[in-house]
Amino acid sequence: MSTAIVQLRGVSKTYTRGKQSVEVLKALDLDVAQGDFLALMGPSGSGKTTLLNLIGGLDQPTRGEVIVAGERIEKLKSSALAAWRARNVGFVFQFYNLMPMLSAQKNVELPLLLTKLSASERARRAKIALTVVGLAERASHKPNELSGGQAQRVAIARALVADPTLLICDEPTGDLDRKTADEILGLLQTLNREHGKTIVMVTHDPKAAEYATHQVHMDKGALAKEEVP
């Protein structure tokens, strides 16, 4: 039986705007097994990205427990939470979020600046991560010299470089054409199957969700149904 790397228990999230309160997540329970590739699906406003941000420690629940890699992260203070994220979570976003003035290699090294590794060790690990995503030969190129698919591969290498427990992907193919999207999804699938990475991915795209080991559909802040492709 697989160990749960993510456990959410009774998680609710309410945002207050002026006198109005909006409950985005409603007493939600979710387990993600170690080595799983989970696709979170649902219409806009269903709470997918909010849930992703809670799992990644970018936001905190109004109520409930968020346990990731054995840690109650909703209890952590901001400095401890930042250190926890650096060790445990790699993030991949729709628009890559690369630093335009840095080379691919220097972009990949960024998460390692929070560690005590030497410059030569950071460079070594960044080269390995770029090799894993098939971009070793583009290490010296800046983001404006890369295609969209290449830029997303750099972003994935950056997410991998610290060997995190969990990869969090928010619409990672939303800005890509179908062929390039399939290449990126194939890469994520390989990272899951061959490198054992646990992945939680938000997507609107049913074809993207087919690459996952299972799918969870959300509606109005609750889990609507679960599917195994």
From TrEMBL:
Similarity comment text for this entry: Belongs to the ABC transporter superfamily. Macrolide exporter (TC 3.A.1.122) family.
Keyword Ligase: no
Domain ABC transporter per the UniProt entry, residue ranges: 6-228
Record keywords: ATP-binding, Nucleotide-binding, Transport
One Gene Ontology term, aspect cellular component: plasma membrane
InterPro entries on file: AAA+_ATPase, ABC_transporter-like_ATP-bd, ABC_transporter-like_CS, ABC_transpr_LolD-like, MacB-like_ATP-bd, P-loop_NTPase
Listed SMART domains: AAA
Origin: domain of life: Bacteria
PANTHER family: ABC TRANSPORTER ATP-BINDING PROTEIN, IMPORT ATP-BINDING PROTEIN
Keyword Lipid metabolism found: no
CDD domains, A to Z: ABC_MJ0796_LolCDE_FtsE
Protein name: ABC transporter ATP-binding protein
Species of the source: Stagnimonas aquatica
GO molecular function terms listed in the Swiss-Prot or TrEMBL record: ATP binding; ATP hydrolysis activity; transmembrane transporter activity
